[in-house]
UniProtKB/TrEMBL annotation:
Belongs to the bacterial solute-binding protein 3 family. PANTHER family: ARGININE-BINDING EXTRACELLULAR PROTEIN ARTP, MEMBRANE-BOUND LYTIC MUREIN TRANSGLYCOSYLASE F. It comes from Denitrificimonas caeni. CDD domains: PBP2_mlr5654_like. Residues 26-249 form the Solute-binding protein family 3/N-terminal domain. This is ABC transporter substrate-binding protein. SMART domains: PBPb. It is found in: Cell envelope. Residues 1-23 form the signal peptide.
Length: 251
């Protein structure tokens, strides 16, 4: 009888551990949902894109059940720190300023900033040529900060809640150009809406490291994500996802 009770206690303890482990492996991915091809909401209402595919691949490696939560870009770090999701896969640049509020994984791709403007426009990247131009950028991004630091006294900067709205104003002629991540601009230039526009000049910020953001001190999850990232790069999963979206390597 005592032996039977001991077996029951061990079984109960195992079940309890499994329940805790299962609960711990239910994670929420935060993203913006308005940044194609990295994250966007498709016609069925699903959140898709490169960021999401990479995040789900990491979840598979971690054997975690993951769901996606969207948030406006302006409030996305506060939402992470308010525990509305567990980690943030939203093409976020790793910067010293952001590192004061959140931690990051190793980079999962490298980006840069590049101007786009009408093909017919004379668009030179010097202060004299840029004088008086109206340039769009998404609010609270590296692009916006770069414009302020480098052309703040020479141009009018118009900030937008999403890149998509900046493109609408560029297409309608209300902007002379847009500065954004070069891969996002590349996607738009290859659309029907971007047919009459092109890149102008070389990238102006070409070593932009993109990482997954986590709450400060969440070291265990960060290490799990870093390990999973190495695994998907080594086994070819990353390349399969990359090739789904781009004809070049973004890693």
């Amino acid at each position: 009888m005592k032996k039977y009770k001991k077996i029951l206690l061990v079984a109960a303890a195992s079940l309890s551990f499994a329940t805790v482990s299962s609960a711990a492996d239910k994670l929420k991915i935060g993203t913006e949902g308005a940044y194609p091809p990295f994250n966007l909401i498709d016609s069925s209402g699903a959140v898709v894109g490169f960021d999401i595919d990479i995040a789900q691949a990491l979840c598979d490696k971690m054997e975690a059940e993951c769901t996606v939560v969207t948030s406006d870009w302006d409030g996305i770090i506060p939402a992470l720190n308010a525990k509305k999701f567990d980690f943030l896969a939203a093409s976020m640049s790793i910067t010293d300023e952001r590192l004061q509020a959140v931690d990051f994984t190793d980079p999962y791709y490298t980006n840069g900033l590049q101007f786009i403007a009408p093909k017919s426009s004379d668009f030179q990247l010097d202060k004299k040529s840029m004088k008086g131009k109206v340039i769009g950028a998404q609010r609270a991004t590296i692009a916006g900060h770069w414009l302020e630091d480098n052309f703040g006294n020479d141009i009018s900067i118009k900030f937008y809640d999403t890149n998509e709205n900046a493109y609408l104003d560029l297409e309608s002629g209300r902007l002379d150009g847009v500065l954004a991540d070069k891969f996002v601009n590349w996607e738009w230039l290859n659309s029907d809406a971007g047919a009459n526009f092109e890149f102008k000049g070389e990238p102006v910020f070409d070593n932009d490291k993109i990482g997954i953001a986590l709450r400060k001190g969440d070291d265990q999850l960060r290490e799990r994500l870093n390990t999973a990232l190495k695994e998907i790069v080594e086994d070819g999963t990353y390349k399969t996802i990359n090739d789904k979206y781009f004809p070049f390597n973004v890693y």
